[in-house]
Amino acid sequence: MKLIKEKKIYTGDGVIENGYIRFDEKIEEVGDMTGFEPKEDDLEVNCAGTMVVPGFIDIHSHGGYGKDNMDATPDEIDEMVKQMTKQEGITTYFCTTMTQTYENIEKAMQNIHDAAQKNPVIKGIHVEGPFISTVFKGAQDPSYIKKPDENTLEKWNEISGGLIRIVTYAPEEADPSFETWCRENGVVLSAGHSNALYGGIECKRSNTCDSSLQCTARTESQRAGGDRIWYAGRRVHAELICDGKHIVPDMVKLACKVRGYDGIELITDSMRAKGMPEGKSELGGQVVIVKDGMAKLEDGTIAGSILTYIQAFKNVMEFTGATVEDAVKMTSGNQAKEFGLDSKGGLLQQEKMQTWLY
Ligand SMILES: [Zn+2]
Q1: pLDDT at residue 137 above 90?
Q2: All residues with CB under 5 Å from ion ligand 1
């Protein structure tokens, strides 16, 4: 079995100053060198000049490398996610869908289900739309936006084999029954593309959520100074696209200060143009132009990102002064805890989790 030893290991929940890891495809053992005992089949890996951090968890990404979760075949999704693992260090990925026709979303659910059978990195689906607000539609096609409907979500979840882990929705549009269904079925409710005011969201949560309140709402902070960041300061997890463009570096720093590193989860929100030459692309059936590191609809609306996860990891330290330990919370530790991907709280303390060397 492969062995890394005498390394500083960031677990997502702390640091082992002088530790070791045994692994093959997955991690089998992590510990402090004081408890290390050599084994006959140890194959030491030379990783001088690297640090060991948990594989990144991207819970919000539409695509990359020319592919999009909405229209890619299972083989194409598998290949795309392999590229994300190889080039960016993503070892857990939630395929994110878009506002489109129910027929297209159902097809995507089936394709993602099939892709997940081949690729263990695919551990969930993030349904972003169509249950959102037409007022803050972003780059989602408004003609397919619908009122939140738990029966439809249940059907999609069945098609996907129970992979739906999170739904971005407009709370002001939802009946309590929608939120109840999500809570009872392990689907995290994420307030986003919403026209609800601060008080509206809070009131909704108070009425419908139980003691796991702080884990069941989320906000997508795409606008500098937006009320979403302040709301995040209270109790929700905030998704943050750390490319320095969706949110300028100083606002990333402010978000971290207000919410704390324990409440922020870095996402890429990447679309198919990631890893591809700049020029014309597509998102949710709409034309996208990629120029100067930004993906935009023809009317100038930001349309996802072309951010790689490894770049987000570097950026968040550069923008905020976060330590590696803090950054690792935002790239894996917080997500692992929220989505139950690691019952022990630290990614590298869990058997069978994957790692990546940086
Ligand atoms: Zn998105």
Answers
A1: no
A2: 128, 269
